[in-house]
Each structure stands twice: as C-alpha cells, then as structure tokens.
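Tutorial handout. Part one gives the primary structure; part two gives the three-dimensional structure as tokens.
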Amino acid sequence: MSNVRSDKPFTVAGRTFQSRLLVGTGKYKDMQETRLAIEASGAEIVTVAVRRTNLGQNPGEPNLLDVLPPDRYTILPNTAGCYDAIEAVRTCRLARELLEGHNLVKLEVLADQKTLFPNVIETLKAAETLVKDGFDVMVYTSDDPIIARQLAEIGCCAVMPLAGLIGTGLGICNPYNLQIILEESKVPVLVDAGVGTASDATIAMELGCEAVLMNSAIAHAQQPVLMAEAMKHAILAGRMAYLAGRMQKKLYASASSPLDGLIK
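Part two.
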C-alpha cells in the first residue's frame, strides 16, 4: 500500500482557498501597517475581533473594511474578548448583521484574562447554539483530542487547537496531542495561537495541519511586513514537506553515496 500523500485544496464551509495562512488584524501600529502586512502574507482569510474593531458599527471612526475590502478578503469575525457562551453568540449575531448575512465565524470563548485559555464548557455550549442558528463555525479550542472530536460532532466546520497560549510565541508545545487530533479529525484542523516565528508555522504544516492562523507573530515582529512574507513562505514549505514525506530518522550515520562498486 502506497504512503504517498496527494494534495487537496484547503476548503472550509464549502469555500476553497489558495492560501493556507490566516491572519489577524489587531496589534498593528496603524491601518497602513495592517494593510501592508496582510498583503505581504498572501492571506485570503482575515480574522477580525468584532468587539474591538469598527466594521461600521461606529460611524465616523476608521473602518477596517476600508483597507481590507470584503470583495478581496474573506472576513472571519471572531469572538475575542468573550468569556461565556451567551456573549459569544451575541457577538456572532452582531457580526452577521454588520456583514449582511455573513455566516462564517471564528468562535473563541476564553476562561480568564491571564492565560486566554479556552473555556471548553462554554465553547461547546456556544458552538451548539451557533450551528443550530446556521453559522459555519471555526472554533478555537484546547489541544484535547476529545473536545476537538466533540466540537466536530456538533457540526463545527473546522477545529483550531492552540499550539501555545495566545500571544506567547512559544510554538507548538504539545505536538503529540495535535497529532492525535489530526489523525482523528473529519474536519479541517488549523493551528491557532502560540506561533512565534516561521519555523513554528512550518512544523504545524509538516504535522499535517490544513492551515495556520496567527496575529501576534506578525504584528509584534520588529518588521511586521517582512515577517508576514516569511510566514507565507513557511506555510508553503511546510505543506510541501508534509506532502513529500520526510526521511526516516536513524540513530547512526548513513552514507549519502552507496559503498558498492567503489574502485579499490
């Protein structure tokens, strides 16, 4: 039986995307830097914190959609800053109203302000309500394979386990749990949170993730636009390496050239 992996498009909620890099829109110094970094990343999906970003609900203030137009980018409203299911559901409904019926959302329900770790109990509640309400739910979660399975069974269109805590840049802290989620999941798995640099993104893709979502790793870099471009290439390299299949690890050296047939 062949172990050769064949590529397939990155598809979420029936929509196909060329880029496997999803990026956030917060933490940049201004709208101009936001626009330039996201252009450099090549991302097609941009996630927006509805509770912190003006999408038209505050007339007279700068509107993010002026620099990231919805006809060029898929806007992914998120529920960042929500700490219970009721608040998260309300935020998604507001986003749908502001974006004229847009149903694709990123659900995140946080447990506390210190860790920003997901509250999985409230996340499960919110996911169930939103799916029943017709939303296509991409969901931020812990790296617990059982919770990831339950979220997929509820009907979430993608599960997004953290690599590390939000904004820490620690990279993939528990690749083994992530591997279990990847092996079991029947929906796309995206790493969300914890990526710090290009190698972290590449490792996530080499493990078999469909895509990676990040914000701080780009926005907090010394040169955000340059880091955005680095991340674009890291995602591509990681995906190709995953498809190629890495060599087997060995304890001892193995000559690059065979010894048979040497002139003696």
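Part three, for discussion. The first strand starts at residue 10 and ends at 12. The CA atoms of residues 54 and 61 lie 7 Å apart.
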